[in-house]
């Protein structure tokens, strides 16, 4: 009898050890194209999902090249989520090669898209009605449009970076919620509840960002590594310029750089910013030639591996805080924008600070 009891206990222990693996196997297997979508899917799916991102944190979706292992991940998935709007030029081929036949969520479906050619990055600060501004082609942002026109083909006519406006982010969340319900209807109530909670968090974060950026002077301009902040600009009223276009694969020509330097000197450009997944070389060159400080690191197409910017909402808050710290009124009183010699002397200090500033938030 004692022997029988021991055997039974051992059997029970083995069964308990197998439970976590069984529970993991029962979770909906979600594969997303890049890290921002992965965080969204995890928030909506909660305990019912296991999320894998093809392109990880601090990595560049533009230059990603799928492997056979990625095709196997898709083949074993219950749900696949990608951005669309030609952001992932490799996604269609990957889906075809994987023979994936489950639900496929295009997260950007239904957003109010920005025409890339029609970016008006000089919106009056705090202008909330970005829908009305999408057709405003009357700006003379020749440095932005001409310096990046050579790269328009990379994503087509529509700017794909819709998540940079939290109002558009709510559309992303709704699409992911619907995809999860299709893949796993038994947990529909949980997905709806999680999505509602998450959308409330997006709205609260949006209000925080508007209040924070409200302290930045109207028509302030900044320079970033590639043109990924059009929706942020439209929503929150900060003018963004870029030496390259929508894709990080582009390299600006000498003429592009010279023209952008002229624009920097002619317009109210206050600071330069690195991006976490683009080469700093171009921004460093602009800093050397203009004397502008490099004020921090912004996150556009990929989350950070750790820290506040390792989540979608944390990334948005981080970007707003870095912009505020560099551009708010108090900072403008401390130096003359045209005093390039003074700024250049401080450049080494500012560039040193950029690394700390970019990772502390």
From TrEMBL:
<feature type="region of interest" description="Disordered">
    <location>
        <begin position="331"/>
        <end position="361"/>
    </location>
</feature>
<dbReference type="InterPro" id="IPR006129">
    <property type="entry name" value="AdhesinB"/>
</dbReference>
<feature type="coiled-coil region">
    <location>
        <begin position="188"/>
        <end position="215"/>
    </location>
</feature>
<dbReference type="InterPro" id="IPR050492">
    <property type="entry name" value="Bact_metal-bind_prot9"/>
</dbReference>
<comment type="similarity">
    <text>Belongs to the bacterial solute-binding protein 9 family.</text>
</comment>
<dbReference type="Pfam" id="PF01297">
    <property type="entry name" value="ZnuA"/>
</dbReference>
<keyword id="KW-0732">Signal</keyword>
<keyword id="KW-0175">Coiled coil</keyword>
<protein>
    <submittedName>
        <fullName>Zinc ABC transporter solute-binding protein</fullName>
    </submittedName>
</protein>
<keyword id="KW-0479">Metal-binding</keyword>
<dbReference type="InterPro" id="IPR006128">
    <property type="entry name" value="Lipoprotein_PsaA-like"/>
</dbReference>
<feature type="signal peptide">
    <location>
        <begin position="1"/>
        <end position="24"/>
    </location>
</feature>
<feature type="region of interest" description="Disordered">
    <location>
        <begin position="117"/>
        <end position="161"/>
    </location>
</feature>
<keyword id="KW-0813">Transport</keyword>
<dbReference type="InterPro" id="IPR006127">
    <property type="entry name" value="ZnuA-like"/>
</dbReference>
